[in-house]
Amino acid sequence: MFSDSPVPHNIRDIVDTTIFIYKEQAHQKGLKFNVNYDEDLPEQLFIPNKSLKIVLSNLTSNAVKYTAQGEINIDVSFTQGMLTLSVQDTGIGIPKTLTDKIFDEYYQVDQRLTKDFQGTGIGLSIVKPLISRLEGSITAHSTLNEGSTFTVTFPCKLVLQSKSSLASSAVKQHHKLPNLAGTSILVVEDNMINRAILKEQLEACGASITEAENGAEALDLIKINHFDVVLSSLCQY
After folding, report:
1. CB 50 within 8 A of CB 11
2. Could you tell me if 165 and 188 lie in one domain?
3. Centroid of chain to Cα 152
4. For residue 12, what pLDDT is reported?
5. Which of 170, 197, 213 is the last residue of a domain?
6. Same domain, 98 and 140
7. Quick one: which of 48, 159, 179, 198 has the fewest CB in 10 Å?
8. Are the beta carbons of 55 and 130 closer than 8 angstroms?
9. What domain range is 213 assigned to?
């Protein structure tokens, strides 16, 4: 549980900065990675930033993870007050009999289908409650051995007279995956979701990650290990 009140954001900037690591991963696997913004998409919307990033990271990470060849397509549109994000892949797919179960907590698709893939283990169970809190919906359409499409829709209010959007759209951001090969990082974070997503993103940059759930555990690890960097959200006053 966390506070995530909608605030004005450029939806293109949020999507681009959230998925750029997964885009690099896709290219490393030889996959095509396409992001399509509807031509009528507003510059800015009132967006729950944290929730959107978690949902998009989870769906995009799974798409890249479970796709060995082909492409990933992300579509973003806004119609009649509803923001829609669709993540489509050409991966291993999900049997139709299991489509309704994949959002259940702790549910895992048959390991005979996923044994060659590794991931955070978070699963899709975190996505559905987040979308529900946003009064939205998520649907999954999948065909075994052909791919999957996950579509998220939730209400967003339009930002009127946005001056900052003009500056944002005038500058094209280019992201390059940093090279952290050989860097040992201790991640100290009590939120399992944040910790797992951060670990996956840092490992994509080549870093070696060790996790700690709290400050005491972190101190014990520091006593017996050397870390180049310690990332912590825990502060003591």
Report:
1. no
2. no
3. 13
4. 94
5. 170
6. yes
7. 179
8. yes
9. 184-232
Phi, psi of 225 (to 5 degrees): -135, 155
Residue 158 is encoded by which pair of tokens?
Answer: 């339009």
Are 90 and 205 contained in the same domain?
A: no
pLDDT at 165: 47
Number of domains in the chain: 2
Could you report the per-residue pLDDT of 64-114, keeping only the tens digit for each?
A: 988 999 999 999 999 999 999 999 999 988 887 777 777 775 455 545 444
DSSP code per residue over 32-72: EEEEEE-TT--SEEEE-HHHHHHHHHHHHHHHHHT-SSSEE
CB atoms within 10 A of CB 203: 15
The stretches of 81-214 forming alpha helices (DSSP H) are 111-114, 127-133, 164-170, 192-204
* Within a domain: 159: yes
Q: Select from 52, 41, 47, 43 the least CA-distant residue to 19.
A: 52
Task: Looking at the structure, tell me whether residues 49 and 136 fall in a common domain.
Answer: yes
